[in-house]
From TrEMBL:
The lineage of its organism: Bacteria, Bacillati, Actinomycetota, Actinomycetes, Kitasatosporales. This is MFS family permease. SUPFAM superfamilies: MFS general substrate transporter (SSF103473). Gene3D superfamilies: MFS general substrate transporter like domains. PROSITE patterns: MFS (PS50850). Keywords: Cell membrane, Membrane, Transmembrane, Transmembrane helix, Transport. It comes from Streptomyces achromogenes. InterPro entries: MFS, MFS_dom, MFS_trans_sf, MFS_Transporters.
């Protein structure tokens, strides 16, 4: 049998040996994003038109939602470590059902704010619990000879991206009725997720043992290698966030309209769904976690540099959108290398029994970096400097982050 056929057979066996718990967690990520993205893309318009909020208040409410979710990931992760994954996931699903149902009927500012905070906190409970358990089970799967942990976490990423693609399509169809119908449909998705986990998620998870740990977050804050990973991952997220800040400005300059954005976002989602697994398999066979993250960050920096190099020519129309498309492709390829590798690296850096805390802290610390960095990016884009300068500065962010990566995988 040739080496190529042996590798193909091995990959087929790896796919069939994926444990049922990992399949449940991967399917959960898909369902979560279907329910979430069925509602979120239409929230801002609902707050402005139906509820009558001023523009600044709409932005404030959306910021609160992000803070109540990303900022509190560390809380959800710590609770999963202390009380187990099952109760935290079930509580998060129940709160998301209540939050979406409340949001559908909320008509006053304070009720909208409360519902939005509730939906954000719900995600802060179940997302770090599911992500940390997926990472734990991926490590166990790897140690049992079932295949690379990064491959499993890449499947997790693909499932989430597929859910993010399907969710808005579902929400757009339901929006023809009204926003309340969209919210109730999103709540219905989480009712199904809640019922599925209540029935299928084991009370005692394989490979999970209760470990008494002391010191609170002190050991985490003294873990320089983990904090270095958080900073590098935060730089990646800040760069990725430019899909929603710098890219729209460039598309507006080149085409005079925001319409091409939808096609560029679809291009990004399509790349992840179709290429994530081959890219992860290639990286797993040839480079380690650190080199995978470093290569991804370099690709992202190159994406910003492509736009910076093209801007002095001032091209518009279809030709003017080509650099933006190149940026999206390189950014997405970088994402496919960075995100699974970062998640796969956390178990190697976490204390025993604290994987949930560390998984949540990765999102919370990097989310804070994005919050501060986005404010600076917005100011940079409004300074009146030559258009290429902000893109060169943004290119330096992921390039510098390569130096921040921990030295050993």
């Amino acid at each position: 049998m040739t080496a190529v056929r042996q590798r193909a057979l091995r990959r087929t066996k790896e796919g069939t040996r994926l444990p049922s718990l990992l399949k449940l967690l991967i399917g959960t990520q898909f369902a979560f994003n279907v329910g979430f993205f069925a509602v979120l893309p239409f929230l801002a318009e609902h707050l402005g038109d139906a509820v009558g909020m001023a523009g600044w208040l709409v932005g404030f409410v959306l910021g609160l939602r992000t803070f109540s979710q990303q900022g509190l990931f560390v809380v959800g992760g710590a609770l999963a470590d202390r009380h187990g994954v099952r109760p935290v996931v079930l509580a998060g699903c129940a709160l998301r059902v209540a939050g979406f149902a409340w949001l559908g009927y909320a008509e006053q500012t304070w009720t909208v704010v409360a519902a939005v905070l509730l939906t954000g906190f719900a995600a802060a409970l179940f997302s770090p619990a599911v992500e940390s358990e997926a990472a734990r089970q991926a490590v166990l799967h790897e140690e049992a000879g079932g295949g690379s942990r990064t491959r499993v976490l890449a499947l997790f990423t693909v499932a989430g991206q597929a859910g993010a693609f399907v969710g808005p399509l579902l929400g757009a169809q339901l929006l023809e009725a009204d926003f309340r119908t969209v919210c109730l449909a999103g709540a219905g998705v989480f009712v199904l997720v809640l019922a599925g986990h209540a029935r299928l998620l084991p009370r005692h998870l394989p490979g999970r043992t209760r470990v008494r740990v002391r010191g609170g977050t002190g050991p985490l804050l003294r873990n320089r290698r983990f904090l270095a990973l958080c900073c590098a991952y935060g730089a990646y997220l800040l760069a990725y966030n430019q899909l929603y800040l710098a890219l729209p400005a460039e598309v507006e300059r080149a085409s005079g309209s925001q319409a091409p954005l939808a096609w560029l976002f679809a291009l990004s989602s399509l790349l992840v769904v179709t290429a994530q697994l081959p890219v992860t398999r290639w990286a797993g066979e040839r480079i380690g976690l650190r080199r995978s993250m470093a290569a991804g960050l370099v690709l992202i920096a190159a994406g910003f540099a492509v736009v910076a190099a093209a801007l002095p020519a001032g091209r518009t129309g279809t030709a003017g959108l080509v650099p933006a498309a190149g940026f999206v492709v390189l950014l997405t390829l970088g994402q496919m290398l960075v995100a699974p590798a970062a998640r796969a690296w956390v178990p190697d850096l976490a204390e025993e029994g604290r994987l949930g805390l560390y998984t949540g802290a990765l999102s919370s610390v990097s989310g804070l970096i994005v919050l501060l960095g986005s404010a600076g990016t917005g100011a940079l884009l409004d300074t009146g400097l030559p258009p290429a300068v902000p893109w060169l500065v943004l290119a330096a962010v992921p390039a510098t982050a390569v130096v921040l990566l921990p030295r050993h995988g």
